[in-house]
Structure formats: C-alpha cells, structure tokens
Amino acid sequence: MKFYSTNSPSVKVSLKEAVLKGLAADNGLYMPEYIPVIDPETMDNIENMTLSEIGFMALKPFFCPDIPEDDFKALVEDALSFEMPTVKVCGDIYSLELWHGPTLAFKDVGGRFMARILSHFVKGQDKEINILVATSGDTGSAVANGFYKVPGIKVFVLYPKGLVSEVQEKQFTTLGENITSIEVEGTFDDCQRMVKQAFLDKELNEALTLTSANSINLARLLPQSIYYHHAYAQMKKAGNTKDLVFCVPSGNFGNITAGLVAQTMGLPVKRFIAATNINDIVPQYLESGEYKPAPSKATIANAMDVGDPSNFVRIMDLYDSEHKKVTANLTGYSFTDEEIRETVKRVDVDNKYILDPHGATGFKALENDLEETEVGVFLETAHPAKFPEVVEPVIGRKVEVPTRLQAFMNGEAKNISMKADMQELKKYLMNK
C-alpha cells in the first residue's frame, strides 16, 4: 500500500518512507491510499479471535507485505502483551480500560507498535534515527519507554514546563540512555510547533535523520484502531446487541481518528462522540462548521490541552471536508474542570469506579447523549494513579499505585530546559 500527503494527494510514498519521515515534506499528514474493508465473515467471527489475531487482521493490509507477514505477526504479538478489558460501569455505559500496559496509558499501544516497526526498518542502516516527540503527558512516557535502549534510535521528548503531572514527567525524565527529555518554557502547542518546524528545516534534515512519534506518524496512529475492534469483539461475545457508540476523550484527535478508520474498515459502530475539556476547538467546529484554532488552556485533564489538533486534517480527509458528513457520524462535548471533578466523585460514590480526569469526560458525554437503543463504550485512557493531585482530593483517599508506576517515581529526573524557540532546539540537536 502507498500513502499520500493530505496536502498533495497525487504524491504517494512507501510505508517505510511515510514512517521514517512522519510528516510529509509539504507539511501534510500521511494517509493510506485507500481504507481496506474487512471481510464480513471475519467480522462475524471476531468474538472468537484473540487480541493479537484481531491486531494482525486489522493492520495487515496497511503494513504487509512491506513487512513480511511472519515478521509482522510476531511484532503484533510482542506489542500487544497486555490486556484491554471492557468493564461495565453502570447501565449501558462501559469503560474500555487502556491502562494495563507498561506506562499505564492507551499510548502504550501505538508507542510499542511504532518502536517495533521503526526497529524493523532501521536494521542495517548506518545513520541513527532521531525521534522528536511533543507531549502533554502520556505520549512522552509511552514513546520513551517503547524506544528505551532500542539500538540505532535516539528519542527527544519535548514537554511544557509545569503542565504535565509529576507522575507523567517521571515516566520519561528518569530513563536516560537514548532518551533525552527537554522541558520547554511554553505550552504543548509550542512543543508541537517546534517539532513540526524541525521537520521542515532543510539544514537540520540534511544533517540528521528525523522522524516523529506523535500521532501524526501513521505507525503510531493506525495500531490504535485495534482496540476498537477488540472492544466490539468483547461486547459481541457478551451478547450485547444494542447499537454501539464510542466516546473518546480527545486532545490531538489521533485516538478518535483511529476509531473512524476502524469504522470505515467495516467495524459496526453506529457513531462516535468526541469529549474534550475547555479546549473545545472541534466541538465548536461540529456545531458551527467553522474551525478556529486557539491558544491552549491549562486544565486538570492536561493530555487534552490542545488548541490546534493535528489530526483534525485527517478527519477532514476521511469526510472530504464536508461538515454534514462529519456531523452525521460525530458529535462533540466539552467540560469544565469542575464538571470533570464532579463526575469523578459521583462515579466513585455511586458505581465504585475510579475515573481518571480524561475518562471522566468520556463517561459524562455518554451520560448526556446515549439513546435507549444504544450501548456506550468510553475510553479510559490512563490509570487514575497517574493523576493523584487531581483524583485523590476529589475521592478523599489515596489511589492505589501499581508497582510498575511506583518504580518510575523512585527514579531521578534527568532533563534539560529550553525556551519555546525552534532555533534553540535546532542548535541543540546539531550539537548532539
């Protein structure tokens, strides 16, 4: 399969080039030349498939034969080494728990896949691959841990000073080795801008081989479609025949884009809901038809503090930039910090289930919007223990910290500080 830039659909590249470059030369995002449709007979039997079998089935059309099938099957099994259960919270509302991986966040799926795919492509290459990634929290930890000590690859994580939780920060600043953490005096949008500008700098790209591990890179985005198929399989196995609705806490909108791709492939989903915090750029677009990026605002659901979501252009590409097509399948809700806190507290009291601040937006949106004929699954994107400063005052007690998370907290942070200036980043990278 070939991949095209959203800015130049007629220009197509190979999987390897799309993955290694991350961002197209014209500043567009890569998209597959077509979305393959899964055989209906396979979909009818999906509840009897294992997670790795579902992953291989869903991703094989995109990644093979560029990666030989046997190699790709082994890659899938290695990347998907943890569970992703769908858990009933109340009534017809279920949580898809995506925090059972190494860094306790949904981004472990895409991060582990991308590390293995890039590792496959860099074998035998003389030049090191330098990965630039901007993070508002969980991306940094998932990518850093996915690529930790991988030969031939260096990772540079840019994160906004004071705007990620202590737990999130510890997960990528304590590693060292081939992981460099850069604390930027600015917002996530500044970090993302610096990364994009770096990819477009001719001198920098002639000196270094650069790629991205944000969801702008297809090798991280496409694997996220797996857990939508897996959630459907679990609901089907449980005999739940109501119309399925997915609600996705959304910041950079890569996660929900992966879900829309899964639906286009034939996954029987009735519709999607995008839940955001007060950074409500996409919900406002859905209502008005006008897309108006704005400076991001800091909230307690910090991974969604994005004022200009990169993957919005992919959603527009899927729907030919037609507002009516988008709104026929996607609705949006935004919530304040107080509404998020209230939801976390109420669900803990009423349902004995602890939400993280991001999952809380997904739960509340389903509460507001779910119809009688529908069953809703929201994505619980991170373990609540990653946000103790938010969750614990709300529920009035300590959140149990998993052992693998505690290990990060005992580590010593190693990072450098930098202004929100691409020239300063360029100078640092050239010297490295």
In words, what does this structure look like?
This protein is an alpha/beta fold and 432 residues long. 44% of the residues lie in helices and 18% in strands. The protein contains 20 helices and 14 strands. The strands form three sheets. It has a six-stranded mixed sheet with strand order 4-5-13-10-11-12, sandwiched between helices. The protein is globular. The protein starts with a strand and ends with a helix. The model has no long low-confidence stretch (mean pLDDT 93).
Strand order of the largest sheet: 4-5-13-10-11-12
Tell me which CATH architecture of the domain at 83-104 and 221-400 applies here: 3-Layer(aba) Sandwich
CATH-derived topology of the domain at 83-104 and 221-400 = Rossmann fold
Helix content: 40-55%
Q: Which helices and strands, and how do they pair?
A:
Layout: E1 3-5, E2 8-13, H1 15-21, E3 30-32, H2 40-44, H3 51-63, H4 69-79, E4 86-90, E5 93-97, H5 107-122, E6 129-134, H6 138-147, E7 153-160, H7 166-173, E8 179-185, H8 188-199, H9 202-207, E9 209-212, H10 218-221, H11 226-237, E10 243-249, H12 254-264, E11 271-276, H13 281-288, H14 312-318, H15 323-327, E12 330-334, H16 337-351, H17 357-369, E13 374-380, H18 388-395, H19 403-409, E14 416-419, H20 422-431
Parallel strand pairs: 5-13, 6-7, 6-9, 7-8, 8-14, 10-11, 10-13, 11-12
Antiparallel strand pairs: 1-2, 1-3, 4-5
